[in-house]
Amino acid sequence: MKYVTKIQTLLSSSKLIVLLIIIAAGIYYLVKGETDNFQAPFEDTATEPGQFALGIFYATFAYGGWQVMTTMLAEVKNPSRDPPRAAYISFAIVISLYIMANVSYVTILSPGQVKTSTAVASDFIAEISDVLAIIVSVLVALTSIGALNASIMGHSRLLFAGARNGHMPQILGMVHAKYLTPWPSIFVY
Predict the structure, then answer these.
(1) For residue 54, what are the contacts with CB-CB under 8 A and spacing of at least 6?
(2) What is 126-152 written as a DSSP string?
(3) pLDDT in tens, 136-165
(4) How far apart are CA 24 and CA 172, in angstroms?
(5) pLDDT tens, position by position, 92-101
(6) Which of 79, 117, 123, 166 is deepest in the core (most CB within 10 A)?
(7) Distance from C-alpha of 131 to C-alpha of 121, rounded to nearest angstrom
(8) Environment class of 37 (CB within 10 Å of its CB; exposed 0-12, middle 13-18, buried 19+)
(9) Nearest to residue 4, comparing CAs of 144, 137, 121, 146?
(10) 63 in Cβ contact with 145 (< 8 Å)
């Protein structure tokens, strides 16, 4: 588990690095006086409730990961204290980072560019530097691997817990003798 945790920390930090690059670039251009796009940032914005709901739905992916935390509660040393603390701290960090990233996007990209973009971060970085675009692409790929790793690590614990409670085959409740991980559940997932 320690090896997987270290890998997950490394892969998750790649997302933070990308966000910090975006935020730093946005701050740099704001300090330079790039504020033209802030004159009417919500011009031509959709006002229908369905479009608003769709925007909220897409935004939930930025805050994903909390559901994996709940599957790992059996392995937490102090489950009554640590998970709520982790949730509050991580929500504050994620909300702050994504608000700052969105401000950075609008600093460089016009509201029309943001609205029509399929990958706002990529368009933002491409406007700044070609070399930085390559670095950010690699870091985003690492982030995707990190999401897969978290999914395997967390969701396999559902099979493990189900087996321990008699809802799944007993073999899925077995633990590796050396690494103390639910290896059959990980393999099946």
Answers:
(1) none
(2) HHH-HHHHHHHHHHHHHHHHHHHHHHH
(3) 889 888 888 888 888 887 888 888 888 888
(4) 46
(5) 988 899 899 9
(6) 123
(7) 14
(8) middle
(9) 146
(10) no
